From TrEMBL, chain A:
It comes from the Bacteria. SUPFAM superfamilies: Carboxypeptidase regulatory domain-like, Porins. The keyword Transcription does not apply. The lineage of its organism: Bacteria, Pseudomonadati, Bacteroidota, Flavobacteriia, Flavobacteriales. It is a multi-pass membrane protein. GO terms for biological process: siderophore transmembrane transport. Residues 416-863 form the TonB-dependent receptor-like beta-barrel domain. GO terms for cellular component: cell outer membrane. This is TonB-dependent receptor.
Automatic annotation (TrEMBL), chain B:
InterPro entries: DUF4249. It comes from Flagellimonas ochracea. This is DUF4249 family protein. It comes from the Bacteria. Pfam families: DUF4249.
Length: 923, 387
């Protein structure tokens, strides 16, 4: 077998470039319990290919299968599955080998340009006989199974180190293998691939063992003979684990090695079995089980990250902002879990390229489609039907991902035995499409379009609807080995509307919308051995139509109101250097300068200085012309983080982060309400500002199977937008007289223990954090709670989550999710009074009391169809019970006056266990 | 708007899983004792009234009147009117007067415990007349059939935008099981039959509005209200049975007062499961002048008022239909023991002598209201009543 290997290697070296794989032959045959030898002989007969193999290999293995016009390589792969044999098709012949890896091709420019393109290309054809668990394989003992790759060409005077780089893709789909660890054995050195699968390592010249590890990807090892700078692209096989609910450790030590603090990376595969509301797989609701990310209450819209407000999160889908990414007032997130590849949540040190929000960035990326073959996934759940398709457009170059979800709650409402609901309707849907195209090695284009819509009609006279629209275009270009750049263009729209058609003459149609467009240019340069420079510019144009109201029909006497459009331009220039000062010390120093212009046309009301902002103190109304600058704000935003490695799997990280935010939500609700609107900073409303300090310790145990982290943070913010009690914010033309701006303060400690591997896996998160607001002023009417810090609406000191999966067999698993949280603060009445024959309660200080603590247990049982590769469809059943304990968790406590009598009421969203059954299939 | 949002967010889709239940309010340790001012001076010529009370604990039963206070209304011409306490907490002007357009008013209160309070200065808003008050039989937004009491109003000056309504409804009713005979407790303490007071047969009970009914025209082109629903009476409400009359009073308030009422309503109304208006202390336009930041609840306003009354009969809108069921089911039964006590407390009325329908008890009785409509209200036909 070594001979075969050598022979092929020599062939490659001497016969020059050739196409990577002649695997287009197709075969039809039926095998029933035949030996591998016989099977191969029959394939030989059925095709015009010679098959070279050793009959002594695996004489006892029997194979069965029906194949109709399938690719030869697939048929061989299937037959050899479960053996330690691999196949390799080359020039009309098939070689069966017993090793793991065979070099079978070179890039076209191998012989063209010596000094520049010193590249060897390697391809794995590994089908391991059984899953290789991390750490279970001692590389040194299996050297005979390791392929050797020569990279680079030795030249004089090029120093002792060389850069090894390349792109990792999945053999089956051609998609980039992102976040895959590329490690150098024995050197405690490693990197992870970026979102395009690209990796780069600077190594001493000489011989190295390079291993890869990633989720759902069979681990590989290569012996690299590094002579100089060069490329080694990797094609990887998905491991069996990819189909299972438990995913093998990803990002080896990435948590420890990155300089960024407060980064939560959500693995879409991992949430597959997580029991969630109504059996819906839900990325953002899954994120809430991780430390530092919370919701005000079950089913509340909006996320509170590290004690920040719900309007302080930049939620991006392929870089386009989504203003209200929820369906059904927040019960479900509006992002299709099947098309989503990755979710990175930055809650601490936000990368310099992002700006405009104080607390976090939710970077949600749609996966790249399968450019090799058509595939898809569909699911039928109790609330939605969902389908995702991956359609190759130009083979191995471009593909399209389409995803759609549709609820059939209208139908559910119809069958409910409740008369008051018969006129109701509630439906939502979301669709997403992503196209990616690799033009050539240096250019790649991605485009995403997204739309989500919700419709409600609960009473016969009103219809409420809202929608999100997003579009993004991204062009990645590689200028040279060390310089890459991207241009991003995005556009988003959020709108809601209410149609009211009642009995009186006040029928109306109310609408709100805002738009945001961004152009961003970002560059990355590798300078020297240890500097990675990220820099660029961005410009964001905001348009807000704060509301208009029109008569719905001629009978209506409603006056048309249209609040004037607001416009603003936020520009940013940024640079960050990731500087590897020593092997142990990594510094990520970044600076962003943001500058905001509130633009006309507009009318701005000027109030007397030193007086409360009321109509009485209005001095003048100043007019601004089209595109005239009304006011400017801006300042430097510092984003600095550092990491020090004590040992390869133990590090300490610290960061300091400052941010500006120029757009704010107007809400007089304790939680997010669907009629919340956004307001741009102007003369009267200053931008919000925050600074965050964080410090964390990261440690991996037990061959990196267990990750432990403890992070602390302290955050200060200014100019948070609040409002006076009893103010109406929607369609308010003098909004500045009803709002207040105050300070915020939050701190906390986050603890996360994660077990990535094994039959039992999952995570345990605990956060202790506090969040406060202060609304003080020299004017009595602008003071809340005596001008002292008081707990915010989402101040929940203790937040505990336990997520566990247990795999009984490869096909059967169970999962649980347990949540405990301190009850959120509420404002209770402190007494009653009578006015106009009616009794009312009156409230005192805000948020002095708390609703009872929240806890909930969810369970899920999952059954997968078998993993036989010839099965065209992989099925997955999931039976889940939400709120098993039937805990009546209060969402809020409120007081009403009914027929002159005061009643205290408690509302809860899911007061009883909710069982659901979901069917999912992958094809 | 508030009402609408409420409807919308009354999310019923999840009604099968979500729930709103009544709970015992957490006992509040820090009850705050605050002065409550209810003072609306109107342009009606009458003894103007100011009500002063104190807040009371949530678990408490009644508001306690603020007695012995010095209540002074001053106007822009320098006139001062000292109000007299006619009953505990109720302060009336000594003479009848009406608020005048163009004049400004301010209320000063000194309480017996030394508190001193002063209101903002208010002026009489322009008057707006009720053009028409009328009744229609409709299906309301919830699909319920009944009588709608509707108001059309307009203001020629186009500026009275903030309306509040109060109503007084009076209806004729007959006790369905009225008999000429009554059970009387004789001098020796035994029960015997005697003559019934004939006034117990026909009555004219009156109800007052118990909620703050608000409407505004600020969003409208013209300051005109067409068909604003002041009162809805379900078709199965017995008060419609014979003849019904309603007096609707329309107050025009200042924006500030209106917003106060609006917020008060919003805090006091049923909320959606998903959205809670942030409640807080509703500041008043009356402030303590002692400088200690003492809180005051309530409102002082000067309002213009117009009123109209209408009458209608059941058969006008429900010809040929059965009258609605009476306020309670009137089923006669005998009382095994304790009948005397029930008669003495005036809880039951005689129906007939037990002639064997029941195994025990001499008399068959019905709940009082079935035989005596004065349980509901006055037997006297009011002066305004027109047939």
């Amino acid at each position: 077998m070594r001979n075969i290997y050598l022979q092929i290697l020599l062939a490659l070296l001497f016969f020059g470039p050739m196409r990577a794989q002649e695997n287009t032959s197709r075969v039809s045959l039926s095998l029933e319990g035949v030996s591998i030898t016989e099977a191969l002989e029959r394939i030989e007969d059925a095709t015009d290919q010679n098959i070279y193999f050793d009959k002594d290999w695996n004489p006892n293995t029997k194979v069965t299968g029906n194949y109709y016009n399938e690719l030869l390589t697939d048929v061989l792969g299937d037959i050899l599955k479960g053996t330690n044999l691999n196949h390799f098709i080359w020039e009309g012949s098939v070689y069966i080998t017993r090793n793991n890896l065979i070099v079978d091709g070179l890039p076209e420019d191998f012989f063209n340009d010596g000094p520049k393109g010193d590249i060897a290309r390697a391809e794995t054809l590994t089908t391991t006989s059984k899953p290789i668990f991390i750490g279970s394989q001692s590389v040194g003992n299996n050297t005979e199974n390791i392929e050797t790759v020569r990279v680079g060409r030795q030249r004089e005077g090029t120093g002792n180190t060389a850069v090894l780089s390349g792109k990792a893709v999945l053999a089956s789909t051609g998609q980039p293998a992102r976040d895959m660890a590329v490690l150098v054995e024995g050197m405690e050195l490693g990197v992870s691939t970026d979102s395009t699968g690209y990796y780069e390592l600077r190594l001493p010249k000489g011989e190295h063992l390079i291993t890869t590890r990633a989720l759902g990807i069979a681990p590989t090892t290569k012996r690299v003979l590094l002579f100089g700078d060069g490329n080694m692209d990797l094609e990887l096989q998905e491991s069996v684990e990819a189909l299972e609910e438990v995913v093998v450790a990803a990002n080896q030590n990435r948590n420890v090695e990155q300089a960024v603090t407060g980064l939560t990376q959500l693995d879409v595969q991992k949430i597959k079995t997580l029991p969630l509301v109504m059996g819906e797989r839900d990325l953002l609701n899954a994120a809430v089980t991780l430390p530092g990310i919370a919701k005000a209450g079950e089913g509340a819209a909006g996320y509170n990250v590290r004690g920040g407000r719900t309007d302080q999160n930049l939620i991006l889908l392929d870089n386009a902002v989504i203003y209200n990414p929820v369906h059904f007032f927040g019960i479900f997130s509006a992002l299709n879990p099947y098309t989503t590849g990755n979710v990175d949540i930055y809650k601490g040190n936000i990368p310099v390229e992002y700006g405009g929000r104080l607390s976090s960035v939710f970077d949600i990326q749609t996966k790249d489609g399968n450019s090799e073959e058509f595939s898809g996934e569909a699911s039928i759940g109790p609330v939605t039907n969902s389908v995702m398709l991956e359609i190759p457009v130009v083979k191995e170059k471009s593909s399209l991902v389409l995803g759609g979800r549709l609820t059939y709650s209208d139908w559910i409402l119809g069958i409910l035995d409740e008369e008051s609901l018969s006129n109701s309707s509630a439906n939502f849907y979301d669709v997403v499409a992503k196209y990616n195209h690799s033009i050539n090695e240096n250019n790649e284009i991605r485009a995403t379009a997204y739309y989500s819509k919700d419709n409600f009609s609960i009473t016969s006279d009103s219809i409420f609807r809202y929608s999100n629209r997003a579009f993004s275009l991204r062009w990645d270009h590689k200028f040279s080995k060390n310089n890459t750049g991207s241009i991003l263009v995005t556009n988003s729209e959020y709108r809601f509307g209410i149609e009211f058609d009642g009995d009186s003459n006040d029928d109306f149609d109310l609408g709100y919308q805002n738009y945001e467009s961004e152009v961003r240019l970002k560059m990355r340069s590798l300078i020297g051995d240890n500097h990675t420079l990220d820099y660029g510019v961005s410009g964001k144009y905001y348009i807000v139509d704060p509301g208009d109201k029109d008569p719905l029909n001629p009978e209506s006497d409603i006056a048309s109101i249209s609040l004037p459009r607001e416009q603003g331009l936020e520009t940013g220039i940024f640079i960050a250097d990731q500087w590897e000062i020593t092997d142990r010390f990594l510094l990520d120093a970044g600076l962003r300068y943001s500058y905001y212009l509130a633009l006309g046309p507009a009318e701005q009301r000027i109030y007397q200085e030193g007086q409360p902002r009321t109509e009485d103190n209005l001095i003048e109304v100043r007019e601004f012309g089209d595109q005239e600058t009304i006011e400017t704000y801006g300042g430097p935003e510092v984003r600095v983080g550092g990491r020090y490695l004590f040992t390869p799997d133990f590090s300490i990280k610290a960061s300091y982060n400052s941010t500006f935010q120029y757009i704010h939500t107007l809400s007089n609700n304790t939680t997010v309400s669907p009629t919340d609107t956004w307001k741009l900073s102007d003369i009267n409303i200053e931008p919000q500002q925050a600074q965050q300090y964080s410090l964390g310790l990261f440690k991996n145990f037990n061959e990196k199977e267990i990750e432990l982290s403890v992070e602390g943070f302290y955050k200060q913010s200014e100019n948070l937008l609040d409002y006076k009690i009893g103010s109406q914010l929607l369609l308010n033309e003098q909004i500045e007289t009803d709002v207040l701006q105050g300070d915020g303060k939050a701190y906390g400690v986050e603890f996360l223990l994660k077990k990535n591997d094994g039959a039992l896996n999952g995570w345990l998160g605990y956060t202790y954090s506090r969040s406060f607001v202060k609304l003080d002023s020299q004017f009595e009417e602008e003071v809340v709670n005596n001008g002292e810090f008081f707990p915010s609406n989402f101040d929940k000191p203790h937040d505990f989550s336990l997520v566990a999966n247990y795999r009984f067999t490869k096909r059967i698993s169970a999962s649980m999710n347990f949540v405990y949280q301190t009850g959120r603060p509420v404002t209770y009445p402190v007494g009653s009074y009578t006015l106009n024959n009616e009794d009312f309660v009156f409230y005192s200080d805000r948020n002095r009391f708390r609703i009872p603590d929240f806890y909930r247990l969810d369970l899920g049982f999952n059954l997968e169809g078998n993993h036989k590769k010839e099965k065209a469809i992989h099925t997955f059943w999931s039976f889940q019970i939400y709120n098993v304990l039937g805990r009546n968790n209060p969402y809020s406590v409120f007081f009403i006056t009914e027929e002159g009598e005061i009643k205290a009421l408690q509302s809860s969203i899911f007061a009883i266990p909710v069982p659901t059954l979901t069917f999912n299939m992958k094809f | 708007m508030g009402k609408l949002v409420k409807y919308i967010f009354f999310l019923t889709f999840l009604a099968q899983y979500s729930c709103v239940e009544e709970i015992e309010p957490q006992s509040i340790v820090e009850f705050e004792d605050i002065l409550v001012v209810d003072a609306t001076i109107t342009d009606e010529t009458k003894r103007q009234r100011v009500l002063l009370s104190r807040t009371f604990p949530l678990e408490g039963e009644m508001n306690s009147p603020e007695t012995g206070a010095n209540v002074v209304l001053s106007d822009g011409n320098g006139n001062e009117t000292v109000f007299e306490e006619s009953e505990p907490g109720t302060y009336l002007s000594p003479i009848e007067f009406a608020a005048e357009p163009g004049n400004s008013y301010r209320l000063r209160i000194e309480t017996s415990d030394g508190g001193s309070y002063l209101s903002a200065e208010k002026q009489l808003p322009p008057k707006s007349n009720i053009d028409s008050l009328y009744a229609n039989r409709i299906d309301n937004d919830l699909g319920e059939n009944g009588m709608a009491i509707l108001v059309d109003t307009s203001d020629p000056n186009n500026n009275s935008t903030y309306y509040r309504y109060e109503y007084e409804e009076t209806y004729r009713i007959f006790a369905p099981e009225y008999r000429n005979t009554d059970l009387i407790i004789s001098e020796d303490g035994s029960l015997q039959l005697g003559p019934r007071n004939p006034n117990e047969f026909e009555c004219f009970p009156t109800n007052f509005s118990t909620s703050t009914i608000l409407n505004d025209t600020r969003d409208q082109v013209e300051d005109q209200v067409d068909g604003f629903l002041v009162r809805f009476i379900s078709s199965d409400n017995f008060i419609l049975s014979y003849r019904y009359s309603i007096l609707v009073k329309q107050f025009v308030h200042s924006r500030e007062t209106y917003q106060f009422y609006e917020s008060q309503n919003e805090f006091a109304s049923s909320e959606s499961v998903f959205s809670n208006t942030q409640p807080g202390f509703l500041s008043s336009n009356i402030a303590s002048t002692t400088g200690d930041g003492e809180k005051v609840l309530g409102i002082f306003d000067v309002a213009s008022v117009d009123e109209q009354r209408i009458f209608f009969n059941y058969i006008d809108f429900y010809p040929g239909e059965n009258v609605p069921p009476y306020v309670v089911p009137c089923i006669g039964k005998t009382i095994r023991s304790g009948l005397r006590d029930l008669v003495e407390s005036n809880l039951v009325k005689f129906l007939e002598v037990n002639s064997g329908q029941f195994t025990s008890g001499a008399f068959i009785v019905v709940p009082r209201v079935c035989g005596d409509c004065t349980a509901l209200g006055s037997p006297d036909q009011p002066d305004f009543w027109i047939e």
